[in-house]
C-alpha cells in the first residue's frame, strides 16, 4: 500500500525525471547539430540522423519493451533501462566520429524505450480516478515543457562549455538525472507493478514485422534523393505494418500473447488521440530542427540566439500547460482542438513573416506568434494523455503504455525525417541566407497544414460526458473482485 499513499508522489517524480531526461535529450541536441557537424565533420544528412536514429530506434523498441515490463516487472525494466540510458549517453558524449555518435544514438534509443515504455503503466497503477487525471496532466505538461526547454538548455550548455565539454555536455547531463530516477524508482515503484506470471512469451514475428515496417517507412526518407524515390520502400513498410496489425488481431483472437491488444483501437478517443499525438509531435520536432539549422547554418547566428528565440515559445507552453487541466475540466477535449488550431495558425503567421528572422537583433515582431505556437502545443500535450487513456479498460493499459509513446516517437521520427529531407532538398549546393529562409518558410507552411489536419481529427475526439457514461456502465456491469 506504500505506492498508494505517500510513495505515489515519489513514484510520479521518478517518471517525471525519466520523461524530462528523454525529452530534453531529443530536443536539446537539435541546437547542437551544426556544432556537432563541424566538430565531427558531418554532412547535412548526418545531422538529421543524429536525432532521427534515436527516435527510430526508440519507436521500434517501445512495443517490445512494454511487453518486457509486463513479463519482468515495470520497476526492474524501468531501472535497468534508465541505467542503460545513462551509460549510452556517455558513449554518445565521447563519440570520436559522427558515425559512432549515430550508432550510440541507436543504442540510446533502445535504452530510452525500455525506460519510457513503463511510465504510463506505472502512473496508471499509482493513481486512480481524478488523481490519475491530474497525474497525467502533470506528466503531459512536464513532457511538453521539457521538450520546449530543450533548445534553451542545449544553448546554455553550449555557451557555458563546462570543462571544455562543449556539445558533449548535452549528453552528460543525463547521468545525474538518471541517477536520481533510479534511486526513486528502486525505492518507490511497486516491485510487482505490471508484472504478469502467465503468458510471458514474446512475439518474435510481431517484433520483426513492426520493426521492419517502421524502419522501411523512415529510413528511405532520410537516404533517398527524393520522396518519390523513397515511396516504394515506404509502401513495403506500410504493408508490413498492415500485416502486423492482422497478425496481432489473429493472436489476440486465438488467446495467444500479442504485442498490441488491437481491440483498444475500437475506442474512438484512443485512436483519434493517437493520430493527433503523432501529428503534433511530428510538427514540433520538425519545427525545432529546421529553425535551429536556419538560424545557425543559414544565418550565422549562435546557439544562444536559437535558445533565446525559443524562450517565448517555451513560456507560452508553460502557461498553457498549467491552465490546460483547469480548462479541460470545463471544456474537455475541445481544449485539444483549440490548441491544435492555435498552433497551426501561429505557424502560418511565422511562415508569412519568416524574413524577419534575417534582421539584426532579436526578432521582437515574432514574439507573439512564437508564444502562441507554444501555447497551442501546451494546450494539446497536457490534456491529451488523459483523453487517450480515458476509455481504455484496465486490462489493456499494458498495450496502451507501449502504443502511446510509440505513436509519439514514430511521429517525431517521421516528422524529423520528412521535414529534414524536404528542407535540405530545397537548398541549392551553395546555399545562402535567402535560400535557407525560403526553405524555412515552405516548411512552416507545411507544418501549419499538418496542424490543420490535427485540428480536424481533434474535433472528433469524444466529449467527457460520453467517457463518464461508459465508465459508469462498465462499473455497473462488471462484477467486483475480492482483493
In short:
78% of the residues lie in helices and 0% in strands.
Question: Could you characterize the architecture of this molecule?
Answer:
This protein has 483 residues and is mainly α. It has a single domain (7-193, 257-470), classed as Growth Hormone, Chain: A. It has 17 helices and no strands. The protein has helices at residues 7-40, 44-72, 74-93, 98-116, 119-126, 129-160, 169-172, 174-188, 204-223, 227-253, 268-298, 303-331, 334-352, 367-389, 397-425, 433-458, 464-477. The longest helix has 34 residues, at 7-40.
Measured by DSSP, the beta-strand proportion falls in under 5%
The largest sheet is: none
Residue runs with pLDDT of under 50 for 5 or more positions: 1-6, 194-200, 465-483
Given the C-alpha coordinates, what overall shape results? globular
Which key phrases capture this entry?
single chain, 483 residues, mainly alpha, Growth Hormone, Chain: A, 78% helix, globular, disordered C terminus
Write the topology of this structure:
Blueprint (H helix, E strand, L loop, with lengths): L6 H34 L3 H29 L1 H20 L4 H19 L2 H8 L2 H32 L8 H4 L1 H15 L15 H20 L3 H27 L14 H31 L4 H29 L2 H19 L14 H23 L7 H29 L7 H26 L5 H14 L6
Helix pairs in contact: 1-2, 1-4, 1-5, 1-6, 1-8, 1-11, 2-3, 2-4, 2-9, 2-15, 3-4, 3-8, 5-15, 6-12, 6-14, 9-10, 9-15, 11-14, 11-15, 11-16, 12-14, 13-14, 13-16, 15-16
